[in-house]
Specification:
About 45% of the residues lie in helices and about 15% in strands. The protein is of the alpha/beta class. The longest helix is centred in the first third of the chain and has 25 residues.
C-alpha cells in the first residue's frame, strides 16, 4: 500500500519537461490544417482502392497457384474479385490457393494488406490512436525545434489583441505559443493556428514546456495583477535575456512588475481612461491613436535600423516622421539633446504607412 502511494506521488512530481511527447497530448496542442469530411473520405477510398489493386495484382501474378471452381485460369477480374472477398474476410471459397507458394503469399502478404484495408475503411478507433501518436510525435519535434518565439501568457481580450498585433506585424502564427488554463480560450487560439499549452503560466514547468527558456519575447496578459507579477517573476528567472512585456490594471502595481523583471509595463486602466477623456473633447485624436495601433490599416508605428547615410545627421531631417531614437535599449524622445545626432547602432521609432 505504501509503495503504491509513493509511486503515485513520484509520478505527480515528475516534471512536465521530462515527459515524452505522447504523454503531453492534451497539454500541448500543435495546430494543423483542418481537412473537410469529403477530402477525408476521398483519401480513405483512394487508399482502399490502392490496397485492393495491389492485392489483385499479386494474385494475378501468382494465378497459376490458385484454383477456380470452373477449372479455368484466373483473369484479372477474377483476381480483383478474389482480392476483394479476401481483404474483406468474406471468403466464398470459389477461388482458393492450392500451391505452397500461393498459400505462403496469401498468408505473408495478404494478412498486412487485410489489416490495412480494414483499418482504412472501418478503423475509427485506430484513427484516434494514430492521431494521438501523431500529435505526440509533432509535439516532440516542435519542442526540439522551437527557438526565438513569443510566449503569450493569457489569451483573454488583451492576449488575443496582442497576438493580432504580432501577426499584423508580420509575425508567423507558428512563432507564437499561448499559455492559459481556460480550455475555451485555448480552442480559440488553436483555431487561429497558434501552438497552445494548457497550464498555469506562473508555474516554471508549464513555461518551460512552452519553451520560454528559448523565447525571444514574453507577453504577460493575465486577468489579475498579482498573477501577472508572479508570471513575470517566473518567466524572468527562466529566460533572463528574453524581452518581457506585461499588462496590468492598476498603476500602483507598475513598479512591482518592473522589479519582477518586466522590460515594459502597460497600464490598461489608465490608458483606457485617458482615451475616454480625450474622446469627449478631441475624438479625432482617439481615432489617430487607434489608427497608429492598427498595423494593417492607415498609419502604424514601427522601428527600423539606421541607414549608413543617416549616421551623424538629425532625425528631424529624415523623410520619415521619427518619434524617437532607441539607443542601447533606451528610448530617447525627440527634443532630447542626445537624440540630435544619430549613431550607428541606433534604431529609429517612426510612423509608416500600413502598406509600406
Amino acid at each position: 500500500m505504501g509503495n503504491g502511494k509513493s509511486r503515485q506521488l513520484s509520478g505527480l512530481k515528475q516534471r512536465l519537461t521530462t515527459q515524452p511527447g505522447h504523454q503531453l497530448v492534451g497539454v500541448v496542442r500543435i495546430p494543423e490544417d483542418p481537412a473537410s469530411p469529403a477530402r477525408v473520405i476521398t483519401r480513405r477510398v483512394a487508399i482502399a482502392l490502392v490496397v485492393l489493386f495491389v492485392a489483385a495484382a499479386i494474385v494475378y501474378v501468382e494465378r497459376g497457384g490458385y484454383r477456380d471452381v470452373r477449372n479455368q485460369q484466373l483473369t484479372f477480374i477474377d483476381s480483383l474479385y478474389f482480392a476483394a472477398v479476401s481483404l474483406s474476410t468474406t471468403g466464398y471459397g470459389d477461388i482458393t490457393p492450392i500451391t505452397e507458394a500461393a498459400r505462403l503469399t496469401h498468408t505473408v502478404i495478404f494478412t498486412p494488406l487485410r489489416i490495412a484495408f480494414l483499418a482504412v475503411l472501418v478503423g475509427t478507433t485506430l484513427e484516434v490512436l494514430s492521431e494521438r501518436s501523431r500529435q505526440g510525435w509533432k509535439i516532440q519535434r516542435w519542442r526540439n525545434k522551437v527557438r526565438n518565439h513569443t510566449v503569450v501568457i493569457g489569451y483573454g481580450t488583451k492576449g488575443k489583441a496582442a497576438v493580432a498585433a504580432k501577426v499584423g506585424d508580420e509575425a508567423a502564427e507558428g512563432e507564437i505559443v499561448v499559455v492559459d488554463t481556460d480550455r475555451t480560450a485555448l480552442e480559440r487560439a488553436a483555431a487561429a493556428g497558434l501552438v497552445t499549452v494548457h497550464g498555469d503560466g506562473t508555474k516554471s514547468d508549464v513555461l518551460r514546456l512552452a519553451g520560454v527558456h528559448h523565447a525571444s519575447s514574453v507577453i504577460v496578459a493575465t486577468g489579475r495583477d498579482d498573477t501577472a507579477v508572479l508570471a513575470t517573476l517566473t518567466a524572468r528567472e527562466i529566460a533572463p535575456k528574453a524581452k518581457i512585456v506585461a499588462a496590468i490594471r492598476e498603476a500602483e502595481n507598475q513598479h512591482l512588475l518592473q522589479q519582477s523583471g518586466a522590460d515594459s509595463v502597460v497600464v490598461s486602466s489608465e490608458t483606457a481612461g485617458r482615451l475616454l477623456g480625450l474622446a469627449t473633447s478631441t475624438p479625432s485624436v482617439v481615432q489617430m491613436f487607434d489608427d497608429l495601433l492598427t498595423p494593417d490599416v492607415g498609419l502604424a508605428i514601427a522601428e527600423r535600423e539606421v541607414d549608413q547615410n543617416e549616421i551623424g545627421g538629425s532625425p528631424r531631417h529624415l523623410r520619415d516622421t521619427v518619434l524617437g531614437v532607441v539607443r542601447d535599449g533606451r528610448l530617447l524622445r525627440m527634443g532630447a539633446p542626445e537624440a540630435d545626432a544619430i549613431e550607428a547602432h541606433d534604431r529609429l521609432l517612426y510612423i509608416r504607412s500600413a502598406g509600406q
